Amino acid sequence: MKLTEYDISHPYHATIVKSERITDESTDEVRHIVLSISDATFHFVEGQSIGVLVPGPHEFGNEYHMRLYSIASSRQGENQNLAEISLCVRRCFYIDDVSGERFPGVASNFLCDCKQGDTVLLTGPYGRQFLPPKDNNSNMLMIGVGTGIAPFRAFMKHIYDERKEWKGKVRLFYGAKTGMDLLYMNDKNSDLSLYYDKETFQAFEVLSSRPHFNEPEQVEQSLKEHSKEVWDLVKDPNTHIYVSGLSRLEARLDKTMEEFAGSEADWLEMKKELIASGRWSTLFYD
Ligand SMILES: Cc1cc2nc3c(=O)[nH]c(=O)nc-3n(C[C@H](O)[C@H](O)[C@H](O)COP(=O)(O)OP(=O)(O)OC[C@H]3O[C@@H](n4cnc5c(N)ncnc54)[C@H](O)[C@@H]3O)c2cc1C
Known about the structure:
With 286 residues, the chain is of the alpha/beta class. The protein has two domains: 3-125, Elongation Factor Tu (Ef-tu), domain 3 (Beta Barrel); 139-285, Rossmann fold. It contains six helices and 13 strands. The protein has a six-stranded antiparallel β-sheet with strand order 4-3-8-1-2-5. β6 and β7 form a beta hairpin. α5 packs across α6. The protein starts with 11 loop residues before the first strand and ends with a strand. Bound molecules: flavin-adenine dinucleotide (FAD). Flavin-adenine dinucleotide (FAD) is lined by residues 49, 65, 67-70, 88-90, 92, 94-95, 105-109, 147, 150, 283, 285-286.
């Protein structure tokens, strides 16, 4: 769906409660931003996104610049406060291919520049195709890079803090450039390490061997190292697979799965079945 097709006619006013940088100066700026929405009609579930409306003037006379961000909190709200949600936002910059000029992304810089007490217009929530399984006995295989960790943070909080009786296996494969890019698992913010002692949970973090090159995060390397467990999970009808983050991950993941399946055709067939049975969910963006 194109961004222009989203319904933005009923925006919510939200107030910035907190904005903390969760990476250090050695790498890209990523912030954990907590917003308060006082409107009690705002409800969401894990895996949904909200739209951020940046007021103009903008190019082409658009009133708002709208971008989507995954909600990083579970349905009971940030820290179980129903009125609050959190986002995990990377401050984006783009280089013009022709002039070489660097220019800031509008919405991500707007959000990252917001200070406590500032007001932001939100729309949504959107998307119901990236939902945690209903059955506590389900296995979850989560594969992600970068800010794609945001919905997984929401999943973890939901299944372990809110459902409590989670029995299925939960596996997180997460690729990052450096240790500091391991969002919610680094020295600045270690939210996800709260779940390391859960019997059903295991995280596999992968760091880039060449962090200063703009190469894709090497999450598939770790999948290959644990190929038996990963492939057994994929084949298990009780497993739900989630993939989240930059869209460049998709082709690399397909290649890896093709190796596990034995051929491209076998993987395509398998993937078709996974999608049809609602066990393969993706959330990709550029
Ligand atoms: C469902 C969904 C969930 C998302 N969740 C998150 C999230 O949790 N956290 C997060 O940080 N982001 C997330 N995003 C990405 C986010 O929506 C924005 O795309 C991102 O923040 C950049 O928006 P911006 O307004 O800052 O940049 P823009 O102002 O949109 O700047 C991008 C502009 O730069 C140009 N451009 C784009 N790419 C390039 C390039 N490679 N080289 C040169 N020029 C380029 C294009 O002309 C484009 O108009 C999500 C996206 C989707 C679709």
